[in-house]
């Protein structure tokens, strides 16, 4: 404890304390700063009246060239305050470090996984030139508009009204993109040499790719983990997607029809593609046709040019590419999985779009697309398929898929409805479902004319399946009896084929 | 032909270096301002802790000039606002720099 001298400013121990280091232990709690009247000893025998000044006084640097004289107690308080500040800074820095460390850990894990695992495979496709698709690039509703995220500064500036609509759309797009990517990756894991997975989606607009990148990461993970080698052919669907999405009439349905198109070559189930059912990667159909070389963790796919391509008009502005080779491959595979009823030459029909693909007239040996499958000229030459059983399990999937595509186009809706009508009929007619795996469409198409008004297509086909199926069962029973009177062209053709 | 390309390359490299210099300048300026900002924040808080019994000084060169507490607080507050405005002014072009074509 320093002795307070008389009338001289003592400025004891650390006068300016810029460093937060040791709190002066000597600073007592005495707060007095002022002078005190005291009797000061003046020699051994006398006292003098005097004052104590500058007792317990500390000059503190507050920062930025500011000083303050305060009592020691106050100084202690200031020091404590600074210590708090420093502690806070340290904590923040520690959090930042943790972030970095976790990133490092994640990357290390990724590396380990890619080194060690045998069934996780990196698949690459070298693209030499642009894909020769004639589809238009997808056009966004509003160009340069972005999904509403807090990171993007401009989104806040932009509209509040539009963004809500966009948000719903964008979410759907994101979901669909994710599913598409998943499907592609699943398809890639299968080994069919003809199959090609478009590397990324050339037709996607960049903004959607951006938002999908996040979802894509998750999708990739899921795919690599589940590892279902399912066969998939995207060459036909790629331009289709470009065109469908460029319409943007009904965003959900448009893309869903794309999904359903993709299924036509799949033996995969539709759980991944159905908007209504959650993704379930584990339930995929395992049809291992021999995956690529797994010893090297990279598979290189190359796009093979298909010999014959025929454009088929499937509706307003959409077209599909039909390839003879694909059809044959499909048929072969279909036969190998064993549907005894199917005729050898009939293509597998899994989605309504397949039907369009199938109804291709053979004119002079060439495959020529037909404008409308409801009004076809020659039934004999047309390739219709009517076989393979439908299982009850496929019902919901098919219904789900068809429900989503029903709104899109008139012809599409007609088709879907006709298919829906036939489903209960099939269930009654067919005995055993051969394939247990749920599929989008069993491939059985039974044409029937529209007998009753309840079966006629009506514009609001949002949920054709749900309310009408029980009725239709009865109606179809009647309808089937009526077939004796009037036979539609489809039916005639098929009867002919059966015979 | 090759000379043309080389010249182009040279030009681009210079541009790049210039940009880097600008960047480093901006960075250092920004850092300075940030430091001043935090410091002044601390001073403000500490001044709030003080009461009227103690004397406040300001260091101007070699001189400690006596100040009043209220005056000191006001001054520090103004300085704080000025620094904030500086930071905002000098670094606002960040989102503007990204060209629209990027999106």
Automatic annotation (TrEMBL), chain B:
What InterPro entries does the annotation carry? PFD_beta-like, Prefoldin
| Presence of the UniProt keyword Transmembrane in the record | no
This protein's GO CC annotations? cytoplasm; prefoldin complex
Alphabetical keyword list: Chaperone
Keyword Repeat present in the record's keywords: the answer is: no
Which BP terms in the Gene Ontology apply to this protein? chaperone-mediated protein complex assembly; protein folding
Ranges annotated as spanning the membrane: none
Molecular function (Gene Ontology), one example: unfolded protein binding
Q: What does this protein do?
A: Binds specifically to cytosolic chaperonin (c-CPN) and transfers target proteins to it. Binds to nascent polypeptide chain and promotes folding in an environment in which there are many competing pathways for nonnative proteins.
Q: How would you summarize the oligomeric state and partners of this protein?
A: Heterohexamer of two PFD-alpha type and four PFD-beta type subunits. Component of the PAQosome complex which is responsible for the biogenesis of several protein complexes and which consists of R2TP complex members RUVBL1, RUVBL2, RPAP3 and PIH1D1, URI complex members PFDN2, PFDN6, PDRG1, UXT and URI1 as well as ASDURF, POLR2E and DNAAF10/WDR92.
Question: Which protein family is it in?
Answer: Belongs to the prefoldin subunit beta family.
Name the chain's protein: Prefoldin subunit 6
Q: Which gene encodes it?
A: PFDN6
């Amino acid at each position: 404890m320093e002795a307070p001298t008389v009338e001289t400013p003592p400025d004891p121990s650390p006068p300016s304390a810029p460093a937060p280091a040791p709190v002066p232990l000597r600073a007592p709690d005495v707060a007095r700063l002022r002078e005190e009247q005291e009797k000061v000893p003046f020699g051994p025998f006398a006292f003098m009246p005097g004052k104590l000044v500058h007792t317990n006084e500390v000059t503190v640097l507050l920062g930025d060239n500011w000083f303050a004289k305060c009592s020691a107690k106050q100084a202690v308080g200031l020091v404590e305050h600074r210590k708090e500040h420093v502690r806070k800074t340290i904590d923040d820095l520690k959090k930042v470090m943790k972030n970095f460390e976790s990133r490092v850990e994640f990357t290390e894990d990724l590396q380990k996984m890619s080194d060690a695992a045998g069934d996780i495979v990196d698949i690459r496709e070298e693209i030499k030139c642009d894909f020769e698709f004639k589809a238009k690039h997808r056009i966004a509703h509003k160009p340069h508009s972005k999904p509403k995220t807090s990171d993007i500064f401009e989104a806040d500036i932009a509209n509040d009204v539009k963004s809500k609509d966009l948000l719903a759309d964008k979410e759907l797009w994101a979901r669909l993109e994710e599913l598409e990517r998943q499907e592609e990756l699943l398809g890639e894991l299968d080994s069919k040499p003809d199959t090609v997975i478009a590397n990324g989606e050339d037709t996607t607009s960049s903004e959607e790719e951006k938002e999908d990148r996040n979802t894509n990461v998750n999708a990739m993970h899921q795919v690599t983990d589940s590892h279902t080698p399912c066969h998939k052919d995207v060459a036909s669907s790629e331009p289709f997607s470009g065109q469908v999405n460029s319409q943007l009439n009904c965003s959900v349905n448009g893309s869903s029809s794309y999904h359903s198109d993709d299924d036509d070559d799949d033996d995969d189930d539709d759980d991944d593609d159905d908007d209504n059912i959650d993704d379930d990667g584990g339930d995929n159909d395992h049809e291992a046709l021999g995956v690529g070389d797994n010893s090297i963790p990279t598979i290189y796919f190359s796009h093979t040019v298909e010999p014959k391509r025929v454009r088929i008009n499937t509706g307003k502005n959409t077209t599909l590419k039909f390839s003879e080779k694909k059809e044959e491959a499909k048929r072969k595979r279909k036969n190998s999985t064993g549907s005894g009823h199917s005729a050898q030459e009939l293509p597998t029909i899994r989605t309504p779009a397949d039907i369009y693909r199938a109804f291709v007239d053979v004119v002079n040996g060439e495959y020529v697309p037909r404008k409308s499958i409801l009004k076809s000229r020659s039934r004999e030459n047309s390739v219709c398929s009517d076989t393979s059983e439908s299982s009850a399990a496929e019902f919901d999937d098919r219904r789900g898929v068809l429900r989503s595509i029903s709104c899109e186009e008139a012809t599409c809706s007609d088709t879907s409805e006709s298919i829906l009508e036939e489903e209960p009929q099939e269930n009654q007619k067919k005995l055993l479902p051969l394939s247990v795996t749920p599929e989008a469409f069993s491939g059985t198409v039974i044409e029937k004319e529209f007998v009753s008004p309840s079966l006629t297509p009506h514009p609001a086909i949002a949920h054709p399946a749900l309310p009408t199926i029980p009725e239709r069962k009865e109606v179809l029973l009647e309808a089937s009896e009526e077939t004796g009177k009037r036979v539609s062209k489809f039916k005639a053709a098929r009867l002919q084929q059966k015979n | 032909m090759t000379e043309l390309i080389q010249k182009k390359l040279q030009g681009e490299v210079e541009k790049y270096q210039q940009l880097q210099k600008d960047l480093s300048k901006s960075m250092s300026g920004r850092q300075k301002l940030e430091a001043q900002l935090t410091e002044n924040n601390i001073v403000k808080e500490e001044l709030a802790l003080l009461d009227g019994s103690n004397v406040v000084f300001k260091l101007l060169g070699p001189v400690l000039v006596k100040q009043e507490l209220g005056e000191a607080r006001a001054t520090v507050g103004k300085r704080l606002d000025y620094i904030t405005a500086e930071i905002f002014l000098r670094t606002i072009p960040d989102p503007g720099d990204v060209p629209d074509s990027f999106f």
